[in-house]
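USER: I would love a firmer grasp of how sequence relates to backbone shape in proteins. This is the protein in question:
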Amino acid sequence: MQRNYLALALLGCGGAALAASLGGPAVARAAALFEARPVDASRFAVLARAVGRDDWTLLVLEQLRPAPLCWQSRTDGLVDPSLNRFDFTGICGRYIDSNGYSVRFGNGDGERDGAAGLRLRLAQVGQELQLQAAAPDQGGVLVVGRAAATARQRDAFVAIQLEPGWELKRRSYGNQSLNHLYFAHGASARDLLEQAAAGTDGTPRLTASRRPFPQLLAPPPPPPPLVAPITTRTRSSTWRRQAPSPAPEAEVATASQLPQQGRTIALQVIPFQE
């Protein structure tokens, strides 16, 4: 009991990393006691930052005061982190790792509804950058947000748009708001994982009719039907096949009938009569 109380106290003070080292099941049960409060989404930006050659890291910025602006949209579609050019203490809030954000489903009891082990990550899928809630063993993946990965710049961020049903909420304990954000969904994790496995969560997938099979050639036309032989009725009133009559042979002159070169041919002379 002392260990559970210590973990709960540490979570209430924002020390999620230290509380996690005290034991997973105890912390999961304690986390179910926290509540999630709505936030003004216009004051937050969910961003992806390029790291190295092909990695991405997730961060969330919060505008605590109206000015100066903590981030600004650029004409090329990227986001300028303007908070790096001034002292943003008390002006901008930053949530940069699992101590600052996590996923939450339904009633918040992640261990009971199948959310235990789901962690937020960024993954490039084709020309799209996806914010995913995934298990370490790759047993299930939920798409939380998307962005078109148009460019990678070290000093500019990519804005992530949350999928329908997902929203940011703030963790609270009693009347105290904590410095921790939830990527929250009203449905249970188990239901969402089943929908994702069945392909009914709205995520585009390659269906059977769209698979890149080569086009089949059309079959050759059938041969023309055979002509039935002509038959005639005989005296016995039976039908018999009549053999086709032979074609007339062409008259061919023999060699003795052909005139030969240099030979005199005798012609018959008919006498003239008056």
About this structure: Residues 2-12 form the longest helix (11 residues). The chain has two domains: 1-31, 36-202. Confidence is low (pLDDT under 50) at residues 1-24, 204-219, 234-239. Helices lie at 2-12, 16-20, 24-31, 110-113, 189-198.
